[in-house]
Amino acid sequence: xxxxxxxxxxxxxxxxxxxxxxxxxxxxxxxxxxxxxxxxxxxxxxxxxxxxxxxxxxxxxxxxxxxxxxxxxxxxxxxxxxxxxxxxxxxxxxxxxxxxxxxxxxxxxxxxxxxxxxxxxxxxxxxxxxxxxxxxxxxxxxxxxxxxxxxxx
Length: 153
Fold this sequence. Notes:
The protein has 153 residues and is an alpha+beta fold. It contains six helices and five strands, in the order H-H-H-H-E-E-E-E-H-H-E. It starts with a helix and ends with a strand. Residues 147-153 have low confidence and may be disordered.
């Protein structure tokens, strides 16, 4: 355990994908995988086992499962369309405007972007209430966000 985390990971694991996950865990814990001892790596692994559930078949399967559940409930999904703006009325999201100018009205708008990009980039700072601004400003990413966290506007 006196070796750096990267050396331990490279020696113990063959899969480049798993190695990448473990390197990332080290970085998320603030441990330099190239220096120090493997102690931080072991702690990261224990934490990873305790809080993460890896998706069987790869993380893309999570997106497919979410899309399938939405389609079964009658949700209209748009693929390969960049959103320019989330439209609001009386403090509620009412739809989106696509990059090509088309508007889409909706009862519920869901963003899979991070919270700051969603609110500052798509909703607009001028519309955000002081309470929501505090939430957005104090948002911190952690290990639980590594598979993607939808932001509901």
